[in-house]
TrEMBL record:
Membrane topology of this protein: Multi-pass membrane protein
Keyword Transmembrane helix: yes
Official protein name in the record: ABC transporter permease
Listed GO CC annotations: plasma membrane
Similarity comment: Belongs to the binding-protein-dependent transport system permease family.
Organism: Planobispora rosea
Transmembrane stretches, start-end: 57-82, 126-147, 159-178, 198-216, 237-262, 295-314
Record flagged with keyword Cell membrane: yes
Cellular compartment(s): Cell membrane
InterPro entries on file: MetI-like, MetI-like_sf
Renumbered residue ranges of the record's region Disordered: 1-34
Pfam families assigned to the protein according to its UniProt record, in alphabetical order: BPD_transp_1
Keywords from the named record: Cell membrane, Membrane, Transmembrane, Transmembrane helix, Transport
């Protein structure tokens, strides 16, 4: 068996490759001055202050105060309106006011429903809002799809002109719109006291077209090209691909359209002069001087219930639809 002799390695300089080199390098690094990393917090209250008991008390006190104050500012008018209908006229004008009605009763609501014929007014308004919703989806969706995906000639100019209409105050175009509805160009039809006077102006909305176009821009082009390879035309692509993936923004446009028509006052006042075809806002305003104050408040509560319910049911879709098309990809 051969004899093996182990020759120990001699220590080398710090720059060498021997075992002494790592130790020397570590000692050299230890002698170097270390940089102090400063972490700056650009907030009103830094996380370090929140770790203290005093900081947590201040933080939660401010947070609870702000949340409760803003909640009360928005909820209190609704509470005052609902409970005001349960009071008598003497209780409503009493100073200081009473925050609770003497007794909880729905008599004023029943009286408002009968005296103001709210069933007819709500039915008319539902007809106007439903028709405006259908025309808005039919016209604005196709216009936004054409501007986004079909890219027609002068499409950018058309979109710029649509957006320019948003800079014009509504009261400025009120008279030209009224004259247009009274004598429809080319056809010469008089649309006053008809649902068309509400439906057509509601569909001509540049803001809705802009929202829809921004969302359609975020749809991948490859998805539409794959449908084209399979033989689908523009209409089939719109119906089978674009509309199903655009439900969030369609929900937003639907809610905005229905709420806008439901609460509109000036335009229906001009074009719906027939008492049998008035919307709920015009009908309540025309009868307000003949009704007790608690009955009037009750009618306002009934008229506002549909829009409040729609908002609470679909509030999540509003934010989801408004932010869905903000980023591409």
């Amino acid at each position: 068996m051969p004899n093996l002799t182990v020759i120990p390695e001699s220590p080398e300089r710090p720059g060498g490759s021997g075992p002494a080199a790592p130790a020397a390098a570590r000692s050299a690094r230890a002698r170097r001055p270390r940089r102090k990393i400063r972490q700056e917090f650009r907030t009103v209250v830094s996380p370090h202050q929140l770790t203290s008991r005093h900081g947590r008390v201040i933080y939660w006190t401010v947070l609870v105060t702000v949340v409760v104050s803003f909640t009360a500012a928005f909820v209190f008018p609704l509470y005052w309106m609902v409970t005001g209908a349960m009071k008598t006229t003497e209780d409503l004008v009493q100073i200081p006011p009473t925050f609770l009605p003497p007794r909880f009763t729905l008599d004023a609501y029943a009286e408002a429903w009968e005296l103001m014929d709210l069933s007819l007014l709500l039915g008319n308004t539902a007809l106007y809002a439903g028709g405006a919703w259908l025309f808005t989806l039919a016209i604005d969706v196709t216009a936004a799809y054409a501007l986004s995906k079909l890219r027609p000639v002068l499409g950018k100019l058309v979109l710029a002109l649509m957006l320019a209409t948003l800079m014009i105050p509504p009261m400025v175009i009120m008279l030209p719109a009224y004259l247009t509805v009274k004598d429809l160009p080319l056809l010469g039809w008089d649309l006053l006291n008809t649902p068309w006077a509400i439906w057509l102006p509601a569909a001509a909305n540049g803001f809705n077209i802009f929202l829809l176009k921004r969302f359609f821009d975020s749809i991948p082009r490859e998805l539409l090209e794959a449908a084209e390879i399979d033989g689908a035309g523009p209409v089939r692509i719109l119906w089978s691909i674009v509309i199903p993936v655009s439900r969030p923004i369609l929900g937003v446009v639907s809610i905005l359209t229905v709420v806008a028509v439901w609460r509109d006052f000036v335009w229906p006042l001009l074009v719906l002069t027939d008492s049998e075809k008035m919307s709920v806002s015009i009908g309540i305003a025309s009868l307000s001087s003949q009704m007790p104050q608690n009955v009037l408040i009750a009618s306002l509560v009934i008229a506002s219930l549909p829009t409040v319910v729609v908002f609470f049911l679909f509030q999540r879709h509003i934010m989801a639809g408004l932010t869905a098309g903000s980023l591409k990809g």
